[in-house]
């Protein structure tokens, strides 16, 4: 006969309160890093009294920080996340998420990092479509061109200033080479949390990208979906923004990262 927390099969039943705590912590995202009690209750669907009780305890133990009537993930969480990710294989986290993103959109998903004043592809999940815009690990492109480059510049102002001081390469008729316009687009990317480009690096190709951050809230890289504009017109890219950002957030969370405050 099972006793205590053991089921008939001998497996321990999960504590219900841990599930509720997880729901509360998962309510905080890169787009909504700060929430009120009411917003937490609406996001989780938990009773108001339960939310108030659990949030009070989460603040007391450092899981959440409070400023006036708003709450955000606590600094202690970043400390634990950094310890968990110390020996973490970044690509081991990135690659499965890219495959999920590829399957969700049907298009090639990539991960880019800064290399000097360029961007380099470090992971790819290739589309299954026969018609594709080929991208391979190790491919290097100008950082001033394309959606992933715009994301990498949006959270790296020092690099943005350096590359915008130099001559901007033109790869297609749609490439942005006006410095003031590119400054504006970089600011827009930082404000919106993603970038969409059509035909800037390759004629007839589109891309949308979102940032990934580490435990110090520094930019780690950019997740991008790209493919032929025939299948990815601007309107389709807009439809995929939430899917893209969700997958970028998955990587950030898995690596113990957090969005800059």
What's the quick description here?
This protein is an alpha+beta fold and 261 residues long.
Describe the structure.
With 261 residues, this protein is α+β, with helices and mostly antiparallel strands. It is built from 10 helices and 9 strands. It has a 6-stranded antiparallel β-sheet with strand order 6-5-4-9-8-7, with helices on both faces. A hairpin with a 6-residue loop joins strand 7 and strand 8. The longest helix has 16 residues, at 90-105. The termini are far apart. 34% of the residues are buried. Residues 76-257 form the IclR-ED domain. Keywords: DNA-binding, Transcription, Transcription regulation. GO terms for molecular function: DNA binding; DNA-binding transcription factor activity. This is IclR family transcriptional regulator.
Low-confidence stretches: 1-12
Structural class: alpha+beta
Q: Radius of gyration from the CA trace?
A: 21 Å
Strand and helix order = HEHHEEHHEEEHHHEEEHH
**What's the arrangement of strands in the largest beta sheet?**
6-5-4-9-8-7
Envelope shape: elongated
- Total beta-strand segments: 9
The CATH H-level superfamily of the largest domain is GAF domain
Helix content: 40-55%
Average of the residue pLDDT scores: 87
